[in-house]
Design a protein that fits this description.
The complex is a heterodimer. By secondary structure, chain A is an alpha/beta fold. Chain A has 21 helices and 23 strands. Chain B has one domain: Rossmann fold (3-Layer(aba) Sandwich), CATH 3.40.50.970. In chain B, β7, α7 and β8 form a beta-alpha-beta unit. Chain B is α/β, with parallel strands linked by helices. Classes of the chains: A alpha/beta, B alpha/beta.
Chain lengths: 612, 351
């Protein structure tokens, strides 16, 4: 597989018509070259013109010098999953330029640095040579600044070629740079240089244009990690233990910024929270459990490798019954692959993380808004169920920029779960057992140190209802059965799936997380191109609720679509299905290190349907 | 660290402490360790120390990792909450717990395997943070619960029962703790109740990490000839650096010692550690001096015991975090969920 193959797939068709608000721009650069500002300005300008956009960064596990691709998709129809084909390439990386061009579909356009002479590579692509060095020279004499500001030139060229309003470009630039007037002036200079050059030298030859719409009114642009951080703060988090790991670091880093600003005691100015950067993920979760045991609203965020390290503590949290919230911003590797690429590959391991008989609730946000709301759900569920709760996002959702309606202020008060108090103790006739199921839902009443209620000894070894050490067969089995009962209670408390039943549709589609956006697009393609009607169920949590099984029962074939090799969610689902349900389940998998796209789903589903 | 409580007048004929509790209020479950285990002696001294200082046991949290030593928190202070966590990971659980409720007094019990091997990483970072906790290593130089394998504190040349010789140098947890930033570092011997109790009481009165390595012979697997952690060996090679006395803040005692050989250190809560019969060139408040004495005694095959290093005024981790005085764990929603205006402002920043 070549470098370019890593982010582009084979071309499929050629186009000559005028194409408005429906194309993908891919900027190929070298990481560390400062292209992020230019890319976000481009994204934001299109957004400000009222056109639905999405931006996806495909970056290496490196700080500077390796190839990076940023894809911006404009879609009048509002499709925001990755588009399989690249329509407009900005080739800034010498190393990958040739292959980037060779993998374009016929009819695409390519803007490139003139000395690269990419136009000699093929004749079915529109080429726009731009002499970047010549244009940047008059802007600044500082070599370092030249390298950074250079990227704004392609924004200027694209502004002209794609009819992106220069006023919007400037507005987006100001948004991006804040109050740094000197930097703004410098970047504006480069932007204008690009625009003027295009106006004077580059006649429009490609079909792609941006035209104003009103589809982004009232929306914001935000990354999932920032959204989750806001949710955590609104959930009243008081303790954060974390260890830096891409792609989750920005969740805790955003949270730290928000907490510093909004969570100081108004009278004393002191913090109503603590954030500790731990020595590793094991310690991070250990701290979270210590704080949770103590009664704090406690969380950590991590990615797959950190999750592996948290295994033993997760089991302890499950068995000792300590509330904890764990965000897993899923990626691959590095033990098992591509460290900075998105995936849904931790589902199975998170669901049963640890040794022994354990299972854990997973929340499955698909949008930035759900990163926000599910953060709050997670803290409530953790305290209600007295157990670790995982929020399974992914790199695509966590680190990329997404459109969203503004988040709503929570109206539901915090649920602090079942805590023993004097009244309850009296009701129990002073005979309280930390692990005694008095309500029949598997959830016992807990006390925390310092609350004036009776103490107990938390231990991962065998214990009876009174939390006393026990190796008795009945004590152990009863406790495990109660924990299973508690998991059944979780089934009734976790967010229910979102279901769209289409009358007469024999095919059901199940998806979760960011896969949702590809499914939305694919269902339209299936309907319009292949006359295949599908019903859709989007999972929002594990354990599976009753609705999931009803959905399978009412369809002939059900495709579970996910971004991993081993059909991880499907495997979990199969564990709970009866024979008839089991026989209906099929799988569509995507695991190439790129976010899933609608076209791939459509092609695979049609193929499986035809083979049937 | 001692909890303030009104002094109760003693009831006639009843032994109680200054907060009116009887010694039995400080006891725990019956020990399940081997008869004669050094750990049991340490448990007794812990009970004595809490009782004599008059600390309210319901305001204490007891933490441990995994191993024989880590069973100990079940054997003292029944009315305190306890957390027997994961092998080698008590420091992180303790860190979260202490930060979540800064009002509680924390005591962590670990072993030499739990601290020196699987838990060395977390131990290092706990010491470095100077977390307010009394961290006790019940050090027998072997893994008791898995039947006697060497631990990382086993001395060079020490032998197992089977005759296997340890050919790796030991980790000196005291030297390490001093180097890393712990502000109260001591070593003692489970067979020296007087010294151990004085050290424990001082440690409980110190604000910051109090790390105490207590040599505690394993009577079942490491008490034979050839072991350097046997009762006989330790008794023979115990080299007290000084005589340790502790005067709690609520006792007004003036102790007079021969000039030049005594050092008194006043702790955060007003309690005083008095170290007498000190050798003239040893300064327990000087890091270099403390580390030198550890190296010198180790080279002679001796255990330097007593308060080895003390830095009474060092800022602890909880203070560093700049938190509100109220425990984080009990903050109400009104203090932890920002108002709608905050969310509106944040949303505006993303438009």
């Amino acid at each position: 597989m070549s470098v370019a193959d890593a982010v582009q797939e084979a071309p499929t068709k050629s186009r000559t018509e005028r194409i408005v608000n429906d194309f993908a721009i891919q900027v190929a650069t070298v990481n560390g070259s400062g292209s992020q500002t230019a890319n976000l300005v481009l994204l934001r300008s299109i957004f400000q013109m009222g056109v639905p956009v999405s931006g996806k960064n495909m970056f290496p596990s490196n700080i500077a010098g390796l190839p990076t691709w940023y894809t911006i998709r404009a879609s009048a129809k509002g499709y925001i999953s990755r588009k399989k084909e690249v329509d407009f390439l900005v080739a800034m990386n010498v190393e990958t330029a040739k292959e980037d061009v060779l993998t374009l579909p016929p009819g695409a356009a390519a803007l490139y640095d003139e000395p690269l002479k990419l136009n000699e590579l093929r004749n079915d692509v529109v080429f726009y040579p731009v002499p970047f060095d010549k244009l940047i020279n008059p802007i600044t004499t500082d070599a370092k600044l030249r390298r950074l500001v250079r990227n704004m030139i392609y924004d200027g060229v694209l502004s002209k070629l794609l009819s992106i309003d220069m006023g919007q470009m400037e507005k987006a630039l100001r948004k991006q740079m804040g109050k740094k007037e000197k930097a703004i002036a410098l970047n504006m200079g480069a932007l204008k240089a690009g625009y003027d050059y295009a106006e004077a030298n580059l006649p429009k030859l490609d079909p792609f244009v941006v035209e104003p719409m009103n589809k982004t009114d009232g929306l914001i642009l935000i990354e999932g990690n920032a959204a989750a951080a806001i949710g955590c703060m609104m959930a009243g988090v008081t303790f954060v233990g974390w260890y830096p790991i891409t792609p989750s670091s920005s969740l805790c880093e955003s949270l730290i910024d928000y907490l510093k600003k909004y969570r100081r005691d108004p009278e004393t100015g002191k913090a109503t929270y603590a954030v500790i950067q731990a020595e590793d993920e094991i310690a991070a979760l250990g701290m979270v459990l210590g704080a949770g045991w103590m009664g704090a609203r406690s969380m950590t965020s991590t990615a797959g490798p950190g999750l592996s390290l948290m295994g033993e503590f997760t089991g302890l949290g499950y068995y000792v019954e300590v509330p904890a919230v764990i965000f897993d911003v899923q990626r691959v590797g590095p033990s098992t692959g591509l460290p900075t690429r998105t995936a849904q590959q931790d589902i199975l391991s998170a669901a049963v993380l640890s040794h022994g008989d354990t299972k854990h609730p997973l929340l499955l946000p698909a949008s930035v808004n759900e990163c926000y709301t599910m953060a709050m759900d997670a803290f409530d569920l953790a305290e209600r169920l007295q157990t670790p709760i995982f929020v399974m996002t992914d790199l695509d959702l966590g680190m990329n920029t997404w459109m969203s309606p503004t988040f709503e202020y929570p109206t539901k008060p915090l649920d602090r779960g079942k805590r023993l108090d004097a009244a309850k103790l009296k009701e129990l006739e002073n005979d309280w057992g930390r692990y005694r199921d008095v309500d029949g839902d598997g959830i016992a009443y807990r006390t925390v140190p310092g609350d004036g209620m009776p103490s107990y000894f938390a231990r991962g070894s065998g214990h009876n209802e009174k939390a006393q050490y026990s190796e008795r067969a009945d004590d152990y089995a009863n406790n495990l059965d109660r924990l299973a009962r508690k998991f059944d209670t979780a089934r009734t408390l976790v967010p229910k799936p979102e279901i769209e039943v289409v009358r007469g549709a024999k095919i059901g589609v199940i998806g979760y997380g960011t896969t949702h956006w590809a499914i939305v697009e694919s269902r339209d393609e299936l309907r319009n191109e292949s006359k295949i009607e599908t019903s859709y169920l989007r999972l929002r949590a594990y354990p599976f609720t009753k609705e999931v099984f009803d959905f399978i029962n009412t369809h002939d074939r059900v495709y579970l679509i996910e971004q991993n090799r081993d059909a991880q969610m499907l495997s979990l689902l199969k564990m709970e299905c009866n024979v008839e349900q089991f026989a209906k389940l099929r799988s569509i998998l995507h695991y190439v290190g790129l976010p899933i796209d609608g076209r791939s789903v459509t092609e695979e589903l049609v193929k499986q349907e035809r083979g049937q | 660290m001692a909890t303030e409580a009104p002094v109760q007048p003693p009831a006639p004929g009843k032994k109680i402490n200054r907060i009116g509790l009887e010694p039995v209020a400080y006891r725990g479950s019956k020990t399940t360790l081997c008869a004669g285990c050094g750990h049991n002696a340490i448990t007794e001294r812990i009970i004595d120390s809490f009782y004599e200082l008059g600390i309210d046991p319901t305001q204490v949290i007891k933490l441990s990792g995994i191993g024989c030593s880590s069973k100990a928190p079940a054997y003292f202070l029944n009315s305190a909450h306890g957390f027997n966590s994961v092998h080698g990971r008590m420091p992180s659980v303790g860190t979260g717990a202490v930060v979540a409720n800064r009002k509680m007094i924390a005591i962590g019990i670990s072993g030499d395997g739990d601290t020196g091997a699987i838990g060395i990483g977390q131990f290092v970072h706990l010491m470095r943070r100077n977390l307010p906790i009394v961290y006790i290593i019940e050090d027998n130089g072997c893994y008791g619960l898995t039947k006697g394998q060497f631990s990382p504190t086993a001395d060079l040349g020490s032998t197992l029962k089977t005759g296997v010789i340890n050919d790796l140098p030991p980790i000196d947890t005291c030297a390490l703790a001093i180097e890393l930033g712990a502000s109260f570092v001591a070593r003692s011997f489970s067979g020296d109740p007087k010294q151990l109790k004085a050290i424990l009481k001082a440690a409980l009165s110190h604000k910051g990490t109090s790390m105490i390595d207590v040599i505690s012979p394993c009577v079942t697997f490491n008490d034979h000839e050839g072991s350097t952690k046997s009762y006989a060996y330790v008794k023979e090679h115990d080299e007290p650096l000084s005589e340790v006395s502790f005067v709690p803040f609520f006792e007004d005692i003036t102790v007079e010692y021969e000039a030049g050989t005594t050092k008194e250190v006043t702790l955060h809560n007003g309690g005083r550690v008095v170290l007498s019969k000190l050798s003239e060139d040893y300064q327990p408040t000087d890091k270099m001096s403390a580390i030198r004495v550890l190296h010198e005694t180790m080279a002679r095959g001796e255990y330097a015991t007593g308060v080895i290093y003390i830095e009474p005024d060092k800022t602890d981790f909880v203070d560093m975090l700049g938190m509100v005085d109220e425990p984080l764990a009990s903050l109400p929603q009104s203090k932890t969920r920002p108002g709608k205006q905050a969310l509106d402002e944040i949303m505006e920043s993303f438009r």
